[in-house]
Amino acid sequence: MNRITQKLQEDKKILSIYFSAGYPNLNDTVQIIQDLEKNGVDLIEIGLPFSDPLADGPTIQASSTQALHNGMTTQILFDQLKNIRESVKIPLIIMGYFNPMLQYGVEAFCKKCAEIGIDGLIIPDLPVDVYADEYKAIFEKYGLINVFLITPQTSDERIRFIDSVSNGFIYMVSSASVTGSQSGFGNTQETYFERIAEMNLKNPQIVGFGISNKETFNQATKYAKGAIIGSAFIKYLSESGSGKIEEFVGEIR
Amino acid sequence: MSFNVNEKGYYGEFGGAYIPEMLYPNVEELRQKYLSIMDEPDFKAEFNQLLKDYVGRPSPLYFAKRLSEKYNTKVYLKREDLNHTGAHKVNNTIGQILLAKRLGKKRIIAETGAGQHGVATATVCALMGIECIVYMGEIDIARQAPNVARMKMLGAEVRPALSGSRTLKDATNEAIRDWINNPVDTHYIIGSAIGPHPYPDMVTRFQSIISEEIKWQLKEKEGRENPDYVVACIGGGSNAAGTYYHFLHEPEVGIIAVEAAGKGVDSGHSAATSKLGKVGVIHGCKTLLMQTPDGQITEPYSISAGLDYPGVGPLHAHLAQSGRGEFFSVTDDDAMNAGLQLTKLEGIIPAIESAHAFAVLDQKKFKPEDIVVISLSGRGDKDLDNYIDYFKL
């Protein structure tokens, strides 16, 4: 069974952390993953940096740009992760934009992920329709879970379609925004979280965008299976360095 | 071979809608409605009336006598530079603002490179009394100051794009982010034949008035609708798409596309996408794209802000790959000289973007009886400082 599916069956709220690979320093990637696992994080999204990250706000974009300046490439990331499964057991997802994958070759990319022990992918600019038509078979061949986003504007009909194509979890974008631009949730989010919970989807949902601390984590996971922290963690890394991950994770739960 | 978009939004292998889910409702609404709205009689009537009385169409098809003599062929200029706001861009912004109104949108965003699309968008927003925000690269704000001033005077807010190369590509990123953050009340007026389907087709259709007019104007002047060649400069490719549109399926009409070579195609400072690009995804569409082997988008270079873009519209990628279009690249120097030559021979100062198209006359030998229609997509007022600096005038 895929590690993501297994993890989602545990009776707990999932804490997922996103960070940009190669940030703050090129070779921090493996250490950050190991520290996150050691401190009780359930799932990690490893960001493959891209020059033009459309769905990301300034914090993640700046960390991507820095990672690229540090020399990060798709191949270097794969090399860094080569032996990751010797030390890390929790599910690992690579999150990145479609163009670098297209250049690596979608099948070659998936094959490499499977060899390393990556469990899934999140590709915000690969729409579910194109995935279902052109790439689903390749992902399945390599046992990779592909995660799709929904937003407060996504229609019920489309959510049902996304649910039918998904086989891990649904990435529930908390509000209409790019990453890192919200602070706290209001009634709109509450209504949206309830609406999705009532749909009884076959895939659990993990909330992302706007989760930055214990309070927002708890609000988000009141209805959903888990929550993802990205920009807030990157901000923490840039201010405190990669040495104090324990402190950051400890404050969330 | 077809050069129209197919039902999935592709020209050959190029196009599609590679967008984050956050943009799906907006783009899908447009996809479902753009053709039917454009087909409504009252939409057509309002669009055509504004093009006539506000923009000043039809734009003249002018026989350039002295230029023709110099190159020993028959050169016609399609005078998009005479449109209100000084370029072809307004054809599209008029169309999209009318569409946005019918979609009930209250707020307009746009990206701009040279500032022509920003001015054209700010203009139609002033005309309709709608809030307007224009994203523009910080570098372009510096090199296109007159257009920035125009946009502000027209009531638009100009927001600088501070990331990446701080040019058109980054302005487009920022506009897309704004749309993600404002998904309900906002329409994004893309200015070029780029972006997710249906944008390339929608922009092309609004710009196709250019080739529609060329056909009947040439019939009046030469007794035939089809020239031997149509020539246009390409950044994202909206004036080119409009200039080619009614000739795409007329094989006797040669289609010539002129890209910015910057300091030379192989200099590392260029925007000649058809020569330097590979298939990739940028701003929501699959097209030819300048990028590193690792798939990071390369920062392009051209003296002309409007051509300083690392991709081309998917229609143009298809024209390049299929061989239907003949692609040339023109350096900064050749473009500037072609601009000065047009000024001296015909008394017309072209935008530096458009000047690139004229430099093709030095690269390709046309026959004396050939009719060559060149799209003079914009006027050079905005570029006076650049011309003055370059030629030490």
Automatic annotation (TrEMBL), chain A:
<keyword id="KW-0028">Amino-acid biosynthesis</keyword>
<feature type="active site" description="Proton acceptor">
    <location>
        <position position="56"/>
    </location>
</feature>
<feature type="active site" description="Proton acceptor">
    <location>
        <position position="45"/>
    </location>
</feature>
<dbReference type="InterPro" id="IPR011060">
    <property type="entry name" value="RibuloseP-bd_barrel"/>
</dbReference>
<comment type="pathway">
    <text>Amino-acid biosynthesis; L-tryptophan biosynthesis; L-tryptophan from chorismate: step 5/5.</text>
</comment>
<keyword id="KW-0456">Lyase</keyword>
<dbReference type="Pfam" id="PF00290">
    <property type="entry name" value="Trp_syntA"/>
</dbReference>
<dbReference type="GO" id="GO:0005829">
    <property type="term" value="C:cytosol"/>
</dbReference>
<dbReference type="InterPro" id="IPR013785">
    <property type="entry name" value="Aldolase_TIM"/>
</dbReference>
<comment type="subunit">
    <text>Tetramer of two alpha and two beta chains.</text>
</comment>
<protein>
    <recommendedName>
        <fullName>Tryptophan synthase alpha chain</fullName>
        <ecNumber>4.2.1.20</ecNumber>
    </recommendedName>
</protein>
<keyword id="KW-0057">Aromatic amino acid biosynthesis</keyword>
<keyword id="KW-0822">Tryptophan biosynthesis</keyword>
<comment type="similarity">
    <text>Belongs to the TrpA family.</text>
</comment>
<comment type="function">
    <text>The alpha subunit is responsible for the aldol cleavage of indoleglycerol phosphate to indole and glyceraldehyde 3-phosphate.</text>
</comment>
<dbReference type="GO" id="GO:0004834">
    <property type="term" value="F:tryptophan synthase activity"/>
</dbReference>
<dbReference type="InterPro" id="IPR002028">
    <property type="entry name" value="Trp_synthase_suA"/>
</dbReference>
<dbReference type="InterPro" id="IPR018204">
    <property type="entry name" value="Trp_synthase_alpha_AS"/>
</dbReference>
From TrEMBL, chain B:
<protein>
    <recommendedName>
        <fullName>Tryptophan synthase beta chain</fullName>
        <ecNumber>4.2.1.20</ecNumber>
    </recommendedName>
</protein>
<dbReference type="InterPro" id="IPR023026">
    <property type="entry name" value="Trp_synth_beta/beta-like"/>
</dbReference>
<feature type="domain" description="Tryptophan synthase beta chain-like PALP">
    <location>
        <begin position="56"/>
        <end position="378"/>
    </location>
</feature>
<dbReference type="GO" id="GO:0004834">
    <property type="term" value="F:tryptophan synthase activity"/>
</dbReference>
<keyword id="KW-0822">Tryptophan biosynthesis</keyword>
<comment type="pathway">
    <text>Amino-acid biosynthesis; L-tryptophan biosynthesis; L-tryptophan from chorismate: step 5/5.</text>
</comment>
<comment type="similarity">
    <text>Belongs to the TrpB family.</text>
</comment>
<dbReference type="InterPro" id="IPR036052">
    <property type="entry name" value="TrpB-like_PALP_sf"/>
</dbReference>
<dbReference type="InterPro" id="IPR001926">
    <property type="entry name" value="TrpB-like_PALP"/>
</dbReference>
<feature type="modified residue" description="N6-(pyridoxal phosphate)lysine">
    <location>
        <position position="89"/>
    </location>
</feature>
<keyword id="KW-0663">Pyridoxal phosphate</keyword>
<comment type="subunit">
    <text>Tetramer of two alpha and two beta chains.</text>
</comment>
<keyword id="KW-0456">Lyase</keyword>
<keyword id="KW-0028">Amino-acid biosynthesis</keyword>
<dbReference type="InterPro" id="IPR006653">
    <property type="entry name" value="Trp_synth_b_CS"/>
</dbReference>
<comment type="function">
    <text>The beta subunit is responsible for the synthesis of L-tryptophan from indole and L-serine.</text>
</comment>
<dbReference type="Pfam" id="PF00291">
    <property type="entry name" value="PALP"/>
</dbReference>
<keyword id="KW-0057">Aromatic amino acid biosynthesis</keyword>
<dbReference type="GO" id="GO:0005737">
    <property type="term" value="C:cytoplasm"/>
</dbReference>
<dbReference type="InterPro" id="IPR006654">
    <property type="entry name" value="Trp_synth_beta"/>
</dbReference>
